[in-house]
């Protein structure tokens, strides 16, 4: 099992760096497919997200693709929401979590499909309290489901606020750093994380993150959008297989 977790970690880390996701939206269905229950999978996912998001945000900042200013406000909101979200997950049944996660993936797929890919560097500015409030709401919902929040934030930035897709991807991963750290603290205090399995996946994901960000910088925004859509559809199919076929 350890070898499988390491390979999964490299794969998920690559997807995390390339798509700007924490990795939970891919990791959780894979872990469930391997026979791990959703609440244990959520804990493992959060450990992996902390590692991949912090390292990935550092690399994106070095490359100049991360806009830190506005990201701080939405990130702090995500930290507050993420801390609350861990407790929400303990009050919701696994079945409800699975169906909510499927609905979340469907929403993200729709928003990304309608977003127009572009390489324009111009980014709209928003009121800091609006960003903070958005961060809180996404943080609560995302951490309760074991995903970092970029699954919602990236489509909102690209589909509603017209961020360039690559900038939205970097901002999404930065948001994950805040929400996942908060989620990790609260899950550890609640004793709901399999830390050993989580570390196998998390450490292996660092190599994948490096590869993923390198690949992201090599493709155009239009191709990047196509790859994003393929990734969302794949995650949906994995989850639907688990929910409807067991």
From TrEMBL:
<feature type="transmembrane region" description="Helical">
    <location>
        <begin position="71"/>
        <end position="89"/>
    </location>
</feature>
<feature type="transmembrane region" description="Helical">
    <location>
        <begin position="6"/>
        <end position="34"/>
    </location>
</feature>
<keyword id="KW-1133">Transmembrane helix</keyword>
<feature type="transmembrane region" description="Helical">
    <location>
        <begin position="227"/>
        <end position="245"/>
    </location>
</feature>
<dbReference type="Pfam" id="PF01925">
    <property type="entry name" value="TauE"/>
</dbReference>
<keyword id="KW-0472">Membrane</keyword>
<feature type="transmembrane region" description="Helical">
    <location>
        <begin position="96"/>
        <end position="114"/>
    </location>
</feature>
<feature type="transmembrane region" description="Helical">
    <location>
        <begin position="41"/>
        <end position="59"/>
    </location>
</feature>
<protein>
    <recommendedName>
        <fullName>Probable membrane transporter protein</fullName>
    </recommendedName>
</protein>
<comment type="similarity">
    <text>Belongs to the 4-toluene sulfonate uptake permease (TSUP) (TC 2.A.102) family.</text>
</comment>
<feature type="transmembrane region" description="Helical">
    <location>
        <begin position="134"/>
        <end position="161"/>
    </location>
</feature>
<keyword id="KW-1003">Cell membrane</keyword>
<feature type="transmembrane region" description="Helical">
    <location>
        <begin position="168"/>
        <end position="186"/>
    </location>
</feature>
<dbReference type="InterPro" id="IPR002781">
    <property type="entry name" value="TM_pro_TauE-like"/>
</dbReference>
<dbReference type="GO" id="GO:0005886">
    <property type="term" value="C:plasma membrane"/>
</dbReference>
<keyword id="KW-0812">Transmembrane</keyword>
<dbReference type="InterPro" id="IPR051598">
    <property type="entry name" value="TSUP/Inactive_protease-like"/>
</dbReference>
<feature type="transmembrane region" description="Helical">
    <location>
        <begin position="198"/>
        <end position="215"/>
    </location>
</feature>
